[in-house]
Amino acid sequence: MRLPRLCAALLVLAPAVANADDLSAKLAAYENEAVGLSADVPTPDELAGGLGQKRLVDAQVAFSLGDYDQAALTLFDLVSKQQALGPDLEPATYYLAESLYQKGDRGASRQYFQQIVKSSNVSSKYYEPSLERLVELGINDKDADATEYVNALSGLTGSARDASVPYVLGKYSYSQDKYDEALQLFNEVPKGSDYELQALYFTGTTYVAKKDLAKATEAFADLVTRKPRTSVDRRVIELSQLALGRIYYEREEPSKSIDSYLLVDRHSDLFPDALYEVAWVYVKGKQYDKALRALELLEQSDPTSTKTPTVRILEGNLRIRKAQMIRQRQVDGTINPNETGDPSTEYAKATKIFTDTHDEYMPSYQALSMMVDGNLDPASFIEQIAGREEHVFQLAAPIPEAAAQWLRDEPEVQRFVGIETDLSDVTANITAAQADIALLVGVIAAKDHSGLYPEIASRRARIEAIQQDLVRLRSAIHDKAGVSSPERKALESQYFALGNSEQAFSDRVMTAHEGFDNIDTAATEVDSTIGSAQAMAVALRKYANDSLSADQKTKVQAELDSAAQEAQAIEDELAGVRHELELGKDLASVGDEGIAQARAMRKQLTASEDSEARSMGSNDLAQRAMRLADNLDQTDARLAQVQEQSVEQAKVTLAAEEKNLADYKSELAGYEAEAKEAGTTVLGASFKNVKAKFYDVIVRTDVGNVDVAWSQKEDTDDDLKRLNLARSRELKQLKDEFKDILDEGTPKPSEPKKKSELPPATEGPSGSPDKGAGDQRVSPGSSGTQTPATPTVKPDEQKKGATAPKGGAQKGGSK
Questions:
Q1: The pLDDT of residue 690 is above 60
Q2: Which of 322, 407, 490, 799 is 20 to 30 A distant from 670 in Cα terms?
């Protein structure tokens, strides 16, 4: 709309046209164009009908792009107004049902699929897909009532029977444990169809259910060799690779199992599962290094997974086993010289893993313990777990994110989070609807409505451009004819003095936007300050719980609660400011006073030129230009009338929508209250289950540290035993080497003890062999003159076996 205005403004500044032929040619062109502008003027009803078809197309585009929420929202409004769609009602209903199905709202989608089945005939293009979805809903919900739709789907023949029919029927038979019937149906899926690979995957799954692993292996092995044509085929092949790994593991073929797991692409969401399972295959084969590498990669690829503590504990236990294996090789002397592993290093790594895991998950366990014990209200954590925090500053300290994540993985909590997500979407949609209504009310309240309807706005913009150029043309015609009134000249001066109204309008809009941006920057700084205050509040609450006395803790909590309420009030005010900012930006380009002033001035100038033209009855160019200006004014007036009639209808519609919106908000408030009550009950029950899981993690990490200490003790005890054994072996070897020497002085148990042939010791000190009695040395040569000593034992006593007296021999011989 603004480009024609800019072109018109440039035309105003163009030099005057002096040639009469040029003036006539230009007038003729404008006259022909004016006829087209006045033809087929739309009515308000036609505008509304065209809008409905456009919204249907927009919804289909959103559906094709995967934006099922937006598609469902748009289509729900259209389907509720059935009379506005006519023949487009059936496709709108189908796309609404499919959008709801894809976004997970299967209960709501069922009724729309049923509407299509009941209202359509077999030849309808939406009849068979709707039947298939109803059968699949029966499979997911284990609904026995799906038999009606199964029979209807089985009855389709010829061109009405698509390749997907036997595939869907096969899945239904599989869900009913009719495996042979399911295999027959999967085999009926045409080769080369879009469902061929999916049917082959279910064939392998059916063989697994029948415990025929050999045929299941053949089916999955065939699948992994196929080339995917679509993203669905690629997904089926990745699932087949994972299934092959599991089957080979069950069949005791670890090398093939590992190869199958490693075929899963690392960008796939199945890659963490493949890493986790291949690690267990390595563990079974005692390939601890490869298992550890797989676990380390798994932890890096998915650090927030609920499997993370199990992976870490497994890694710690593998460190222990690796340390024991390295030590055993060291003892046996079979260790590789190039191996850099050390038992003490592996034990230290295991201890660190167990300790870090314990410290990371202990706060979550403590928080859940407080909830289970009744010290914390589960209702205060609903928004955090559901991901619906409306305020940065929380009234209560949030539970650790690990605990919140584990709670979200509970089946009942998942259902509750899904409900909360839907309620959040409804709340966002209502907020957006409020903003749109406020914007429309503001636009309607403006004096200028020329930009409301594009089809009318484009015509009026072109008429305005022609009128602006026509002012210059008529001025040139009148001046050439010598007719020039002071009034017209004065009005022309005033009109041309306004300059480029479009550029002035653009400058004003830009200035307004800059002011709004400055306010938004200040609001962002306030948001950042509130976020920092929230972080400090969390730290203070933790410090108060851990370190302060009961009285001090109560005082700190009261002050933090007061600060939280004040911060939330500021956040609410900021939300209102941002809403006003968005509304102000949108309304900045509506109802410009400069353009309205230019139009009013041009109207006066046109009236003055008409007055001059009437006095120039014989001038054909002047009369044609006057008639053209009058025709353009009439066409513009008709378009303005249609526009205003549409605006009046829009006001009625807005009033009705405001009432509907108020009803929706009231209904939403009721659902919110019910959801919060149900969520409190669900969370209260789930806290116990998740607490037990965290308790298991804490105990297993403690047991892991005990295992490390016990393994180190066993290693020490084993070293001591080996040292004692080596000592005993060396002592035995020494005894064996010195056996002869030791045996000479050791009497044999079988022989009597020999009598001592040495003379018994005397009472006096015994001298050296070269000494005489006492301390006297024997004189040289005197030995022959002395009398031999008397024997201690008499000969006759020796014969009798008598022993010597206890006191020994007396000096000087016997009596």
A1: yes
A2: 407
Q: What are the CA-CA distances from residue 454 to residues 50, 54, 231, 457, 723 (Å)?
A: 11, 13, 40, 5, 97
- Other CB atoms within a 10 A radius of the CB of residue 475 amount to 22
Angle between helix 454-480 and helix 620-737 axes, rounded to 10 deg: 140
The closest alpha carbon to 561, from 390, 394, 398, belongs to 394
Neighbours of 660 (CB within 10 A): 11
Tell me, what DSSP letter sits at residue 199? H
Angstrom distance (rounded) from CA 270 to CA 254:
20
- The three-class DSSP label of residue 575 is helix
Q: What is the token pair recorded at 362? A: 């202990």
Rounded-to-integer distance, Cα 76 and Cα 79, Å: 5
pLDDT band at 419 (very low <50, low <70, confident <90, very high): confident
d(CA 428, CA 668): 11
The burial class, CB within 10 Å (0-12 / 13-18 / 19+), for 336 is exposed
Q: Say whether 595 sits in a helix, a strand or coil.
A: helix
- Structure confidence at residue 145 (pLDDT): 67
pLDDT-derived band at 221, boundaries 50, 70, 90: very high
pLDDT band, residue 416 (cuts 50/70/90): confident
Token pair recorded at residue 197: 């690979």
Q: 319 near 293, Cβ under 8 Å?
A: no
HEC assignment per residue over 463-491: HHHHHHHHHHHHHHHHHHCCCCCHHHHHH
Residue 751 CB-density burial (10 A; 0-12 exposed, 13-18 middle, 19+ buried): exposed
Query: What is the rounded CA–CA span in Å between residue 246 and residue 239?
Result: 11
* pLDDT tens per residue across span 99-145: 988 888 888 888 889 888 888 777 788 888 889 999 998 888 776 56
Q: From CA 59, how far away is CA 426, in angstroms rounded? A: 17
Tokens of 691: 């607490």
DSSP state of 2: H
On whether the CB atoms of residues 103 and 76 are closer than 8 A, the answer is no
